[in-house]
Amino acid sequence: xxxxxxxxxxxxxxxxxxxxxxxxxxxxxxxxxxxxxxxxxxxxxxxxxxxxxxxxxxxxxxxxxxxxxxxxxxxxxxxxxxxxxxxxxxxxxxxxxxxxxxxxxxxxxxxxxxxxxxxxxxxxxxxxxxxxxxxxxxxxxxxxxxxxxxxxxxxxxxxxxxxxxxxxxxxxxxxxxxxxxxxxxxxxxxxxxxxxxxxxxxxxxxxxxxxxxxxxxxxxxxxxxxxxxxxxxxxxxxxxxxxxxxxxxxxxxxxxxxxxxx
Length: 262
Fold this sequence. Notes:
By secondary structure, the protein is an alpha+beta fold. The chain is built from 7 helices and 10 strands. The N and C termini lie far apart (38 Å).
């Protein structure tokens, strides 16, 4: 269990928009970039709580049987969405986060709602659960999630986990730079969001690389632009979900009905 996570629940932003840029970099370049950004950003609250500076993230992704959402991501559709349920610990007293992550060209629009762990199977079945005051569940966000899920007949497909080290600023632009390592996946149909358990497979994507993500809500900061130029960073599509599904299907973990051909 991640130290301090239960007492310091990540901020629940029901809906927000941002720009997001992703890169795949070496460990040596990641270390150099950390030195570059330290004058502008500070280690975020949740990374500070961990002795290593890394905290775990696990997400249960949903998709249709024909992998519609995965294929749209691999094909680079400019308008697409993902359905996932996120957690940061296996503690059953900690909430799970229902999220819709939508892309509209270069803008990311994300809605999120907290639910009790015990209510995840019920909500995934399409049934209604009264909101829990402890978690201030956003009823509209949950119903929207269920609507999106029903529109493509989505079901649980794969768990994706990794370790994150994050830096953030305190300006209105909400600049955030994250470094993700140790990506792994676990094909499952169970309505459970767990970090541990059997069946986890390492992803080749982060065996020798780090996933760098830069996020901001307003104007592209000049210092970030200088950093990209200085380090010769080349933006690319890095979907943890689509990469994991493609790898799982290539190893025949998905089953014959889940072809990921694009």
